[in-house]
Design a protein that fits this description.
The protein is mainly α. The protein has a single domain (5-316), classed as Four Helix Bundle (Hemerythrin (Met), subunit A) (Up-down Bundle), CATH 1.20.120. Helices cover 76% and strands 0% of the residues. Helix 3 runs parallel beside helix 7. The relative contact order is 0.12.
Length: 322
């Protein structure tokens, strides 16, 4: 079997995919499991329900495992002849895949926080299981975005077909995509914090469900911005059309765009903290919703700054004008 730089990069991408997502899933499952252990010590009949909620953050780890296996299989490292080394650009794209699903998989921490509250609420009122489940699955979307970007990168660089079409520019651009959706996906932690308060508020007052849901979805916008930039990078580097005209320098510049929106997307954690407090404030006094909403959206501005700079970078290097 030929082992070269491209093959090594694919292995690193697979490691990032399953390793990073396993960190998030493990912590999230641990948080929910701790709540489940406490609840079942008092109410043994809640074991099944607790187990269902604890299982929710496991999916991020499964997404990472899936991408890691796909990377190894599609590049011939698993179940293939392995007689030909993987091109370096494809290896770079594999790292982008690993970053996308791996870092976004840390959103499982937020899901574990929400699921923990869901277990506690279900222990007090069995009728709240459905509403608690809705809040608990919200942070899942960030991981799904990461999985989507990873699969798109593999599809448009020829990994699934075995006809590798990626250029060096595309390889670096894929890393930019991974940074964009991966780090922005950490907004799922903020969303989990807000959703946790939403579960607590609705378990005491069912009429709070709609208002709490509005506040709980606010931190997801950062992940949507990251997904948008990732798609724009793929589109303007020619991944979608197969017309690969971007230069290597432009591909490297795309990493800057990904970092701009990805790291700025971490503001979603702060937004989730504020949204959480807003939900509790409204639960005490419904008249405070307008003011609480203003406080909650303030952290959004920093993600918008990142989105603006990411787009300006693409314009500046001629990526969007190509």
């Amino acid at each position: 079997m030929v082992i070269g730089i491209g093959t090594v990069l694919v292995v690193i991408g697979a490691g990032l995919a399953v390793g990073m997502s396993a960190i998030g899933a493990g912590i999230g499952v641990g948080i929910a499991g701790a709540s489940g252990a406490g609840v079942t010590a008092v109410k043994e009949d809640k074991f099944g329900v607790s187990l269902v909620f604890q299982a929710l953050p496991q999916t991020q780890g499964i997404y990472g495992l899936l991408v890691a296996i796909l990377l190894l299989v599609s590049t011939g490292l698993l179940g293939g002849s392995g007689s030909t080394d993987v091109p370096v650009p494809v290896g770079l794209a594999a790292i982008g895949c690993g970053l996308a699903v791996g870092v976004a998989g840390l959103s499982a921490i937020g899901q574990g926080i929400a699921a923990s509250s869901g277990i506690s609420a279900a222990a007090e009122d069995g009728g709240s299981i459905g509403r608690s489940m809705v809040f608990s699955v919200l942070p899942e979307t960030q991981a799904i975005y990461g999985l989507l970007v990873a699969i798109l990168i593999m599809a448009f660089t020829g990994m699934f077909s075995g006809l590798f079409t990626a250029t060096t520019a595309v390889g670096f651009a894929a890393i930019g995509c991974g940074f964009a959706i991966g780090f922005a996906g950490l907004s799922g932690i903020g969303q989990g914090i807000a959703a946790s308060s939403g579960i607590g508020a609705t378990s005491e007052n069912e009429e709070m469900f709609g208002k709490a849901l509005v506040f709980s979805v606010l931190p997801e916008t950062q992940a949507i911005y990251g997904l948008l930039i990732a798609i724009l990078i793929m589109a303007f580097t020619g991944m979608f059309t197969g017309v690969l005209t971007a230069t290597t320098a432009v591909g490297i510049a795309a990493i800057g765009s990904g970092l701009a929106i990805g790291l700025a997307g971490l503001s979603g954690i702060g937004q989730g903290i504020t949204a959480s407090a807003g939900i509790m404030a409204i639960a005490r006094n419904p008249d405070t919703m307008g003011r609480a909403l203003i406080f909650a959206v303030m952290a959004e501005t920093f993600a918008i700054f990142g989105l603006l700079i990411a787009i300006l970078i693409m314009f500046g290097v001629g990526l969007m004008g190509a």
